[in-house]
Design a protein that fits this description.
110 residues, alpha+beta, 2 domains, two-stranded antiparallel sheet, 4 helices
């Protein structure tokens, strides 16, 4: 993916109204915008959190959200959102057996 950044630079050209003023201090200012287009390649390298693995650690092994945050390198707020997403999906996640889903539902309720 390329992100295009447009930079506008404004240069001032001073022209003297009278030949006796060579400094251009009383001259008119002409604005000449210069546009430069620069493309920067970017790529997101942050890996996704496996929600099935997170559910197993949280509900079957009893890990705290703080421990999960440090394990996955995410914020506590992000881990809380992942747990909410797991509950919204009613613990129906790819990578979990039916027995694990039932154990997680039971652990969540108790």
């Amino acid at each position: 993916m390329l992100v295009k950044k447009q930079t506008n630079l404004t240069f001032f050209k001073l022209e003297a109204k009278s030949p006796q003023f060579n400094s251009g201090a009383l001259g008119t200012k002409l604005r000449e915008p210069v546009v430069m287009d620069i493309s920067y390649p970017i790529q997101w390298v942050e890996s996704r959190v496996n929600l099935a693995e997170l559910a197993k650690l949280r509900y079957l092994q009893g890990w705290s959200r703080q421990r999960l945050a440090s394990h996955y390198g995410r914020t506590l707020y992000a881990i809380t959102n992942y747990c909410q997403n797991i509950r919204k999906k009613n613990f129906n996640l790819d990578g979990l057996t039916e027995a694990e889903k039932e154990q997680i539902r039971w652990a969540y309720q108790n």
